[in-house]
Amino acid sequence: MTNANNSNNENEDERIIDEIIEVDLPATFADLVEVEGYGVRVFRVFGYRIENCFTEEREWVDVVYELIDAVNGEWLEADADDVELLADAEDADVYMQTIDYENYPKSFMEMWSAPDGDGWSANKNDMGGGNMAKQERKPTARELSAKLAEEMKKARKERKEKLDNELDRYNFFKRQFERTQDRRDKEAMETVMAEIVKLRNEE
């Protein structure tokens, strides 16, 4: 005899799994992609994870990619919204032949350890004797990229929340104008719409 509660739970689990599978992915395993904010760097898709996010007001799904720099092998996490396909796995080798390796951007570790930079390079004044200053631990490429990805994710969510608020304001003034035909409501609509366009251009 099948337990009704178990049957309902199984159906619910299948529904959730179906919703996850239907998420639109810009790229999949071994594809080459570019990432917003990382210029001409080319990354290969190593994997991805799907996160169900919930607040009291709404719920949404985030897709987070795990990427490997196709030239220097460094690791990066990036949201799906920031990822754009360059070449699928089948054409990846051909695409790699078009890369300008001589002018390819430096790796994270090269940038952070550059002489006289703001990173974690050794203090030249302490290089001559046995009393060398204790250096801070260098962040790994994974730590640096994860921090950058988190900052980009936070900024994008803040823009989305602000855009949602502006859309609510626009709809409010639109209803007011349709009811009253007051010129001030129309002007408010136009002002809010200009802000909405600005926010969308920033995405």
How would you characterize the overall build of this protein?
The chain has 5 helices and 5 strands; from the N terminus they run αβββββαααα. Mean pLDDT is 76; it is low at 13-21 and 116-135. The longest helix has 40 residues, at 141-180. The protein folds into 2 domains: 1-115, Roll (SH3 type barrels), CATH 2.30.30; 140-203. The protein is of the alpha+beta class and 203 residues long. It has a 5-stranded antiparallel sheet with strand order 4-3-2-1-5. It starts with a helix and ends with a helix. It has helices at residues 4-21, 92-96, 108-112, 141-180, 183-202, and strands spanning 32-35, 43-54, 59-69, 75-79, 83-87.
Largest sheet: 5 strands, antiparallel
Our count of domains comes out at 2
Secondary structure class reads: alpha+beta
CATH architecture group name of the largest domain = Roll
The fraction of residues in strands falls at: 15-25%
Task: Give, in order, the helices and strands.
Answer: HEEEEEHHHH
Strand order of the largest sheet: 4-3-2-1-5
Mean pLDDT over all positions:
76
Name of the top-level CATH class of the largest domain: Mainly Beta
Describe, in short, the structure shown.
This protein has helices at residues 4-21, 92-96, 108-112, 141-180, 183-202, and strands spanning 32-35, 43-54, 59-69, 75-79, 83-87. With 203 residues, the chain is α+β, with helices and mostly antiparallel strands.
Question: What labels describe this entry?
Answer:
203 residues, alpha+beta, SH3 type barrels, five-stranded antiparallel beta sheet, 5 helices
